[in-house]
Amino acid sequence: MLHRPSEAVVSTDRSPEWYKSATRWTQLTFAEDDPDKYDPEFWIDVFRRTKSNAVCLSAGGYIAYYPSEIPLHYVSKFIGGTDPFGTIVEGARKLGMHVMARVDPHAIHADAAAAHPEWVAINRDGTQREHWAFPGIYVTDALGSYNRDFTTEVIREIVTKYDIDAVFANRWQGHGVSYSEDNQRRFKSETGFDLPAKADASDPAWQAWAAWRRRILTDLVVYWDETVKAIRPHASFIPNMSGSSLMEFDLSLIQKHCPILFVDHQARQGVEVGWSAGRNGKRIRGTFRDRPVGLITSIGPEEEYRWKDSVQSGEEIKLWIHDGVAQGLFPWFTKFNACVPDDRWVRPVVEAFNLHADIEPQIEGMQATAEIAIIDPSTTLRHWAPEERHIAEHNDLGFYHALVEARIPFEFLSDQVMTPEALDRFKLIVLANATYLSDEQCLAIEQYVQRGGSVVAASETSLYDEVGTQRDDFGLSRVFGASLTSAPRGPVKNTYVALSGSHPLIEGYEGASRIIGGTRLIAVDADATADTPFLYVPDFPDLPMEEVYPREAPTGAAVIARDTGHGGRVVYIPWNIGEVFWKVLAPDHGRLIANAVNWAIGKDHRVRVEGKGIIDIAVYESEDAMAIFLVNLTNPMMMKGPLREVYPIGQQSLSIELPKGRKPGAIKLLVGNEAVSSRVVGDRVEILVPSIEALETVHLTWQS
User: Fold this and answer.
1) Is residue 6 part of a domain?
2) Domain that holds residue 636
3) What percent of the chain has pLDDT over 90?
């Protein structure tokens, strides 16, 4: 029987809406020897300097940083007679800050594993799963009694003993399939399958396991939240949801139990673009439009070799925070180890957090708006193991980067929430490669088109239903104006598509008769009413070099463009243009994606930004004001961090469509802290921004 601490005296001055004023977070993750060495006053000073109004602090789980009374809950051997968790909680509360306790239940020590072998994840050969990085400890089974019973008791004790607003769980979702006897029995009983041997999107057992895991994890979120609220009714349990679009959970329960969300995508890894930080904000907002979301940012590099107690360049830290802020994510920085051997991270974090504090009041109450949305293909990504989903996202990443390069503002919309209201916020939606879509999802898109919406789609979108069965034809065949004539083939080499006729989609290719094609091709028949501005060049050899020439004339639609007859337009590209652009970055593919979007939207963009450089753009609006974030990504190291320094860019020209019956009022640069002039030309207002260093925000008000 697990120990149950006595009930707490509940504070009466804590509101269930505490999270609304928790907009700048410091996270301190203790190392075991910190209690004997760290300086709590240093951290209280960091709270002040960064204007942090919330803190996330290590409490328990693998190691307790307070004097826990729960048997087998390992307490730091350096704690002595101190209470490091309680000390920081008290200091933060004196500053009026909110407090969230972090628990990490992913591992246990050998004594706990020996006493409760059912708490340990089991390998397929029946052995206990020893920790991959620290021998002698064991990985826990997240879907079994360890989380349900033991972690619940830890959460209950922390919430009982300390004045906190939330509990945050990190590494709580498990690490691979645990082949325990209990899991095998429960899974077989509930699904009829044996546990899958490996991650395989085509394996029905894997799909069943992914759904089974999703249900158990969702139930845990609810159970832990109810546990917290039973002691402190204002407080919440908040799970770490990584960088996903919440595809791991039942959305209705997240809606009810998680008032605030956090994205754990801490920094660049390998070849990753600075806009990756803000992309997370769009993805979460694409599912929960109005829910506050924070971006967890590391002060060190986020590479496979870890280096968790290191410091990356200050400009890299600030770019990650700035792009997150621009795309609606409030800032959160995390520091591993309370002792600070290298304090070079402090200044850039202070600067970025203070800038957010200055901008925040000016954009309060505004909503992110855009005319274009990329559909976040959760139904497709669920068919992939979490560690392999990045492969499935290559098409989406290519479209994302192409739109950033083209300076086209856009949002995300999850395919889990494609209601008429959600879809109709946008004039155009992009389906980069939503391979798996249900009949209901296809119908929602078809009805959106019938209401006047426009679509740009590519590759294998809608070729499979939601469970993975290939259709005889695209689920969106009527939308595309195209019918499947043969299954996708690839990978293929040395392919091309030829320009055909005269159409806006072939603008910008002067001097070329053909451009690079895809590596995975689909043969389709286009409707008689559709245009085909690009045709496939039939395959020809890539070696010997003397044989590298086409034998046949171009034939077969490689791009289909049509007016829907309902006021919108559709472009369908039956090959993996997004993936190829992401991997190769050939400008012809970026141009084709931009041309497709520019033509399909059928009008001038509501917000245009012209000038030199690469800029990530975000637009926010209220009834009487607009704010346009401009994040400068221009850098010779743009495609791989860390940045060494910021390269300012020169004058940028903004052209904004005037709301009906309105004229511009005051216009100000929030970062530059200066007013700027404007002029009205027709139904648009034009604004000149003299230059941008790392970030600028143009704020303007409307008058009747």
Assistant:
1) no
2) 607-703
3) 84
